[in-house]
Write a structure and sequence with these properties.
single chain; alpha+beta; Aminopeptidase; 11 strands; binds coenzyme A
C-alpha cells in the first residue's frame, strides 16, 4: 500500500528533503525481500540486533509471521530506491499471548516500537510521517492510545514524541543498564486534546521555573536525567508535555542551560 498522501492534503504529497521526494509505505507481509531489506537496514545501522546465531533471512521470516498474524506493521521511508527510515507499530500479542517484540500492551493499546532515520536524513519530515503511519494503524485497529518507551539519554526522541506528536510522559522504568538508568513511558491518547502552549515564552518570562525541591506551581521544569524527581512529580499528578532545548528554543538567551522537560498538572 502506498501511504504517501494519507490525508489527501496536497501539502503532504511531496516532501522535500535534500530536494528529493520521500515515499512512505507499509511493507506488504507477503514481500519477504522488503522485510529482509528493512531488517538489514536496521542491523547495519545498529538499531536492531541479530539474535545469537541468527541470520537476516531467518529473522525476516520470523517478522513476516508476526506481520501475517496482524501482530505488527512496518513502515519504510525511501528516497528513490534508498531506504532512509523505518518504523514499527505493535498491535497485538502473538497467538497464545506471548508479547510481540517484548512489548507489554493492553488490548486497547498499540506500541510505537521504534522509528529510525538514517543519520544524514534527520530533521526533515520523515520521522513525523512515519509516526503518523504508526498512529493511523493504531486507530484503524481500534486502539484508544499509542505508547512508547524512551531512554533517559535520548532527548531527540523525547522531543520528537512530545513536541511534535503530542505524546505525554506518564511513567518511569528503572533500567538495569547503568548508562541508561531510566526510561520513560509516553502515551498519546486519541481522545485527548494537545496540551501545547508557548512554554518557551513562559520560561522566558519566569512563570515556569526549574524544580527547586518543592512542588508548588502548576508547571515545573525537570531535568530528564533526574528520574527520581520525575517519579515524585508523576506521583503528585504532573505529566511531562514538552522537552525544551536551550539552543533551539532560546538561542543565545540564558534562560535555561540544558534540556528540561515541562511538567504540568491539571
Ligand atoms: C528519533 C528519530 C527517529 C527522530 O527523527 P528526527 O528526524 O531526528 O526528528 P525531528 O528532527 O523531527 O525531531 C527531533 C527533535 O529533537 C531535537 N534534538 C536533536 N538532538 C537533540 C538533543 N541532543 N537534545 C535536545 N533536542 C535534540 C531536534 O532539534 C528536533 O527538534 P526541533 O526540530 O524542534 O529542533 C531520530 O532522531 C532517530 O532515528 N534516532 C535514532 C533512533 C532512535 O533513537 N529512535 C527512537 C527510539 S525507539
Amino acid at each position: 500500500m502506498n501511504v504517501d498522501n494519507p490525508y489527501g492534503d496536497p501539502g503532504h504529497e511531496i516532501h522535500e528533503q535534500g530536494q528529493k521526494q520521500v515515499n512512505i509505505s507499509e511493507i506488504d507481509p507477503e514481500n519477504l525481500n522488503d522485510i529482509a531489506e528493512y531488517y538489514k537496514f536496521e542491523v547495519d545501522n545498529s538499531f536492531s540486533k541479530l539474535r545469537e546465531g541468527g541470520t537476516i533471512d531467518g529473522q525476516a521470516k520470523f517478522r513476516q509471521g508476526q506481520m501475517e498474524n496482524g501482530q505488527l506493521k512496518v513502515f519504510t521511508a525511501k528516497e528513490g530506491e534508498e531506504l532512509i527510515g523505518t518504523s514499527v507499530v505493535v498491535l497485538e500479542n502473538a497467538p497464545g499471548g506471548t508479547e510481540t517484540m517484548e512489548k507489554d500492551i493492553q488490548n486497547n493499546e498499540a506500541f510505537a516500537a521504534g522509528t529510525f532515520i538514517a543519520k544524514d536524513k534527520r530533521s526533515g519530515e520523515t520521522a513525523l510521517r512515519l509516526a503518523q503511519e504508526q498512529e493511523r494503524a493504531a486507530r484503524e485497529a481500534g486502539k484508544s492510545s499509542i505508547i512508547t518507551d524512551i531512554d533517559r539519554n535520548n532527548p531527540a526522541s523525547m522531543r520528537f514524541r512530545m513536541n511534535k506528536n503530542d505524546y505525554v510522559l506518564e511513567g518511569v522504568n528503572d533500567e538495569t543498564d547503568e548508562a541508561i538508568k531510566y526510561s520513560y513511558r509516553f502515551r498519546k491518547k486519541f481522545d485527548q486534546e494537545s496540551q501545547s502552549a508557548d512554554w518557551t515564552e513562559q520560561v522566558r518570562s519566569g512563570s515556569i521555573q526549574k524544580f527547586n525541591g518543592e512542588f508548588g506551581e502548576k508547571e515545573v521544569l525537570i531535568d530528564p536525567d533526574d528520574g527520581e524527581v520525575i517519579k515524585q512529580a508523576l506521583e503528585k499528578g504532573y505529566r511531562g508535555v514538552s522537552l525544551l532545548n536551550p539552543e533551539r528554543d532560546f538561542g543565545d538567551e540564558e534562560s535555561i542551560d540544558k534540556n528540561y522537560v515541562v511538567f504540568t498538572k491539571e
